[in-house]
Please model this.
Amino acid sequence: MSTALILKLLLTAFITLAIATVAWWARKHPNRSKEYPERVRMPKVLPIFGWLCLGVGLLMGLLSFFTPGSPLGARIASVAIFMGGMAFVAMYRNFYVAARDYEVAFRSVLGTEHVIAYSDIAHYSSGMLRGQQFLTVKSVHGVKFSINASAYDMSPLLRAIDFHQVTGRWPLRVEVPAEGFGP
Model:
């Protein structure tokens, strides 16, 4: 075996191990919002990668746009890398999920906020993909929520689904009487 081949194999093994370690750490330590601890955000690796792409795209763009005779491909690549970095930072900034006892609140990667009460769920499905449990919920209002239940703590929603399978109805929100009524 040549030294170049051994170096290539070691580098590939190191990168694979590093990615697996970061993924394991992100699952072990969910990224909770400081203001709202029930909200779980995307792993912190995402904005780090996004800011890195923003910086690389900006530097590539400065070099390619202001260097005479630079190829068009370098300009296109710099804009694509910069826009990809912006997309990663925006996805991290926008997304959160909060599974509560009687509802799930979430904000999509595009920034639209939704709350689905468990009693408003019209359809749900769960499936495995590459050893990960994915969950899709549709409300009676047409809101669709899909998530990797292995990566995010969806235990209240999964308990509500189990409750629905056993009793045939969804758990209802605890009604608290207003002041001045009742004993």
Observations:
- The beta strands are 31-32, 40-41, 96-99, 103-107, 113-117, 121-129, 132-139, 144-148.
- Helices lie at 3-28, 45-66, 72-94, 155-167.
